[in-house]
Every structure is written in structure tokens, then in C-alpha cells.
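Let's practice the habit of predicting before peeking. Look at the sequence and jot down your guess about where helices and strands might fall. Then scroll down.
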Amino acid sequence: MKVAKSTLFFLFLAFCLQAQKTKEVKVNADSILLKNTKYRHIGPFRGGRCGAVVGDLKQKNLFYMGSTGGGVWKTIDGGSNWRNISDKYFGGSIGCVAVAPSDPTILYVGEGENTLRGM
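Done guessing? Here is the structure:
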């Protein structure tokens, strides 16, 4: 009887150890989908808040951005590179940017921060 009990105990122990070895590994679907994703910073290379963004309907990669404390920035390549176009002319916090409907080379800019400083 003792032999039968000890045999059953060792068989049970062997079964439990085997069950632990064959445990399923859960795979995160996001890790499969995003494993080849490369991240890049699309600019502009500065910190702070953005107060306004506007684009031109005829030029799909042209955008202007008004930033809080950083002036007006322009991109002609869809956001890969940005340059500040307001330095030496005006600066400070920009609350509004608009492209003139009659002439896309005219840009209206309103100063003053309109963004909330919430988290």
C-alpha cells in the first residue's frame, strides 16, 4: 500500500512538473504588429506648447505652426523639417495663424497665448 501511494505521489509530481514546462507563452499582438516600426521626431526641435496650426489646401506639405513663446514655424515637407519664420520680425506667444484665402503667400498671425496650461 505504501508503495502504491508513493508511486502515485511521484507520478503526480512528475505530471505537475511537466505541466509547468509546457505552459503556454502569451504573445502580445502589439509586439508582433509594431516590431518593425521605426520612430522618428518630426519636429520642430523645440519644447513647448502649440497654439495654432494651419495648412494650404493647394500645397499638401506646407504647414505653419504658432507656438507658445516660440514664434511661427514653417514646414514645406509635411513636418520632417521646420524653420522659424518669425525671428527678427516678431515673436512671443502665437495664438492664431491663418493663410489668406485670396493669396497663399499672405499669412495672418495673432499674438497672445490662447492655450490652457493643463496637464
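How did you do? The chain has two helices and six strands.
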